[in-house]
Amino acid sequence: MPTVRQCTLLLLFFSAYALHAQTKRPNIVYIMTDDHARTAVSAYDTTLIRTPNIDRIGREGMVFRNACVTNAICGPSRAVLLTGKYSHINGFKDNRSSFDGAQQTFPKILRAEGYFTAMIGKWHLATEPTGFDYWNVLIGQGQYYNPVLIEMGDTLRHEGYATDIITDIAIDAIENRRSDDQPFCLFVHHKAPHRNWMPDAKHMDLYNDRDLPIPPTLFDNYAGRSRAASEQDMRIDDMWLSYDLKLNLRDPAEETGTGGKKSWTTTGIEPDLQRMTAAQRQAWDAHYGPITEAYYRDKPEGRDLSIWKYQRYIKDYLGCIASVDDNVGRLLDYLEKTGELNNTIIVYTSDQGFFIGEHGWYDKRFMYEPSLTIPLLIRYPAEIPAGTVSDALALNLDFAPTFLDVAGIKPPADMQGASLLPLMRTGKAKGWRKSMYYHYYEYPYGWHNVKKHYGVRTQRYKLIHFYNDIDAWELYDLKHDADETHNVYGQRKYKRIVKKLKKELLRLQTQYRDTNPEDKP
After folding, report:
1. Which fold has domain 22-197+317-422?
2. Which residues contact 456 (CB under 8 A, 6 or more apart)?
3. Taking burial as the number of CB atoms within 10 A of a residue's CB, which of 229, 324, 382, 443 is the most buried?
4. Over the chain, what is the mean pLDDT?
């Protein structure tokens, strides 16, 4: 029998242990891909791909069905993530910008509060990362094969596939670069599935046995919409045969394409292939060689050529996502093995959505649904019951205040987003936003010729105003027109809706201090 003193010591020990378990601050793991369409996550849609590891995050946590971005382009989205502020406030409106690293970001706040902070993978903000104990980032867009990364100022080439390498570095960072028991905030930013969609060898043949369904709007003619829809430069029809579609052209003069660099006419994908090892190149040629031979044998034209291009594009795109899913599984397994999984809030998302054939397009930028909406899945057992779903309007603007809130830190008053924590129990919260504001700036100097525009979206309606060298409004009733092919602006029966939405648009512009939205940059 233990003595009274021994019982007292045991009681004190277990009380201290329980208090430590209750007060231990949660870790944060933020996984973000680049250009991952929501419909290419099987938690949302099983038509194209199965993503069991990404789905696990939502199955054991929450799936957000109405998550959106405020500016659908890479650099600006990342700046919004870090600051919790709109592009016109944080100063990073388009990909010509440079991020002001001296400004307040939530990683800086977490670091000051004792968190180990690490940024791994795609950064794409022009200046060096600040606010991180450790960073190891791709140069610009980075490369899929044997990428070059900058580690705390030192440049190093890594042999292998980018998605695997980024995951390796991320695991090493939390295993070997932080103090014992130090809570961590880890950013895992993948290059995939960004253009030009180069899958790794084990996923190249994923869809060899079948073709994928064609989007119903692949041959959209943009009737009834503004010039913005027809004057863009991001049609799958206009993809580069070598750089985008991986053909080994017999004559460089055969290269056609728009929406990119003129040098691709002569170089195509060759610079990417030249950086491969002999084994990587052998696997590449074994897969794409027969595709090239079939192209020259069959010589598709017209509608058949459009469908061929779509199939080539979507299969490579999905192959890149398959690798992401594998590596999400690796990271979850590591956290589970180390006992950190259930004390970690895990977020899976994308920097914006992406067109995967809708309206005949690839890329993003537009306020239309495929570009505006993002996959958002969050696992956090302390707050989220497994299998929760939310239809609330969530924004990438909300991530910064959410992570601070989860860490027990009051978000600064100048952050413009709202913590998602109130939604986590049931997917609903009293007083939650009923509308969201969007603003895109990169025109006419950016790629793809998408005109400047801003707009408001509610659960049912979307009002967009294109401006600069155009003055055009578009209105979509998402309940009856999910594909956004019928612009009902100007129709008599929607007159009251337009008036209400314009009033809401002005309210949001005032709230977010975008009071001169059509100012020239």
Report:
1. Alkaline Phosphatase, subunit A (3.40.720)
2. 435, 436, 437, 438, 462, 463, 501, 504, 505, 508
3. 324
4. 95
